[in-house]
Write a structure and sequence with these properties.
Blueprint: H1 2-18, H2 48-58, H3 63-76, H4 79-83, H5 86-93, H6 108-123, H7 127-131, H8 133-145, H9 153-171, H10 175-179, H11 182-188, E1 196-200, H12 209-213, E2 244-248
Antiparallel strand pairs: 1-2
Length: 275
């Protein structure tokens, strides 16, 4: 419970910084470490996916973008998704139904990322921004309320994508984070190498309690810090033997390698029913 309270606090900070711009420092070109819309009325930081598209369109070498992403990725990996991202928090609020992760759909977020880059290059436009559900929630709707936006085709397109994603979240916990988020796709490339992560001790019995607690629907005791783990820590208090822990440590230390499965009792897979 203490771990969850801490995570709720950092998620709240992410909302305050990303959506409400509480620092008041204006647009300083600080890259936000999560899915974020810089069109949000009170935004003070830059959307990484929006910046990536504009760099592709302008043909600019993305030294700053790559450097910032590397720093964020090596620090927390997808921990930003579970602990800080405002749209990840929305996913959490609608995580009513925990179901098994569909491994075949895991590459979708990388396909969305690749499609975003390709569309920016070929069409010279930020097409992902025109469809982004985070932008729908934090920019389109607020501007409509302020009387700046109007109900037209682009607005209705935003509402359609937002509605579809919210429905997906209600049916499958962390739906957007699991399968579609391009920012999650970028951060997933750093997940095994980041300083922040889960560790599995020798006390694991393979009971599956961590699997039932996981909002991403993966099997934590077999997939420690895999690319689909958001390092939210929900599995840690669920472990009856306290074999799981989370925190900062060097990659490659004992218990952090997802390629070393825990010793499990025969047949003790702990996998919840499929979708």
């Amino acid at each position: 419970m203490r771990l969850r309270t801490l995570r709720r606090g950092t998620q709240g900070l992410g909302v305050l910084l990303g959506v409400f711009g509480i620092t008041g420092i204006g647009m300083t070109h600080l890259l936000f470490p999560g899915l974020h819309c810089y069109a949000c009325p009170l935004a003070i930081t830059v959307c990484p996916i929006g910046l990536m598209q504009n760099l592709v369109i302008s043909g600019t070498l993305p030294f700053y973008f790559l450097g910032a992403i590397a720093v964020y990725g090596l620090a927390l990996g997808r921990g930003w998704c579970g602990w800080f991202c405002p749209f990840g928090t929305v996913n959490d609020l609608l995580a009513f139904r925990k179901v098994r992760f569909l491994r075949a759909l895991s590459p979708l977020k990388l396909l969305v990322l690749g499609g975003t880059v390709l569309a920016a290059w070929r069409l010279a436009d930020t097409w992902f921004c025109k469809l982004c559900p985070a932008a729908s929630l934090t920019a389109s709707l607020p501007y409509l309320g302020l009387g700046v936006a109007q109900v037209n085709t682009p607005f209705l397109l935003h509402m359609a994508t937002l509605g579809a994603v919210l429905l997906g979240m209600a049916l499958v916990s962390r739906f957007w984070c699991r399968y579609l988020c391009p920012m999650g796709g970028i951060l997933s490339l750093f997940n095994r190498a980041s300083l922040f992560g889960l560790r599995l001790g020798a006390g694991c019995t393979g009971c599956g309690a961590c699997t039932r607690a996981c909002p991403m629907g993966i099997v934590p005791h077999r997939e420690i810090n895999s690319s689909d783990c958001i390092k939210c820590g929900e599995c840690v208090p669920s472990c009856p033997t306290r074999a799981l822990s989370i925190g900062f440590s060097l990659p490659g230390v004992r218990g952090r390698d997802p390629l070393r499965p825990a010793r499990a009792r025969p047949g003790a897979h702990g996998v919840p029913p499929g979708q």
